[in-house]
Amino acid sequence: MKNKIIVIVVSILFIAGLFAINGILKKQEKPVENKNFKEETMNILDVTSENFEKEVLKSEKPVLVDFYADWCGPCKMLSPIIDQVAAENEDIKVCRINIDNEESLAVQYGIMSIPTLLVFKSGEVTNQTIGVVSKSEILEMLK
């Protein structure tokens, strides 16, 4: 009976140790970014909760905000279209928010599906769309 209790206690301690090691390793992991998808474009700004107010809410220009994730197939399809809109329209600001890194912003704006595009004017959301849309639809949103 004592041997069974010892085996159970050792097993529980072993499993607890594995969970502890897993937690430590997860804290040390750095997310792997798909460089092809998140290619920096001079005309597109990566926004975080730290610079959201300054770059989006207090912007003098209309702002197109793309809520995306690196693992999202439709987001990857939409990315080149967003790049084109940013490159061809200097009268707007284009920003991207990675929902995996900025969960609080996604929750704040009720982002339930990605990609989601929001248009901000004078700090207020004036238009939004969900899913892959055409360049002309994006330009129409910005009017």
Features:
143 residues; alpha/beta; Glutaredoxin; five-stranded mixed β-sheet; elongated
Description:
The chain has five helices and five strands, in the order αβαβαβαββα. With 143 residues, it is an alpha/beta fold. It has two domains: 1-30; 44-142, Glutaredoxin (3-Layer(aba) Sandwich). Strand 2, helix 3 and strand 3 form a beta-alpha-beta unit. It is elongated.
Structure summarized in a few sentences:
The protein is α/β, with parallel strands linked by helices. It is 44% helix and 20% strand. Strand 4 (116-121) and strand 5 (124-130) form a beta hairpin.
The assigned CATH architecture of the largest domain is 3-Layer(aba) Sandwich
Provide the succession of SSEs.
HEHEHEHEEH
Poorly predicted residue ranges: 29-40
How far apart the termini lie comes to 78 Å
CATH topology of the largest domain: Glutaredoxin
What average pLDDT do the residues reach?
84
Trace the largest sheet across and list its strands. 1-3-2-4-5
The domain count comes to: 2
SSE arrangement:
Layout: H1 2-28, E1 44-46, H2 52-57, E2 63-68, H3 73-88, E3 93-98, H4 103-108, E4 116-121, E5 124-130, H5 135-142
Parallel strand pairs: 1-3, 2-3
Antiparallel strand pairs: 2-4, 4-5
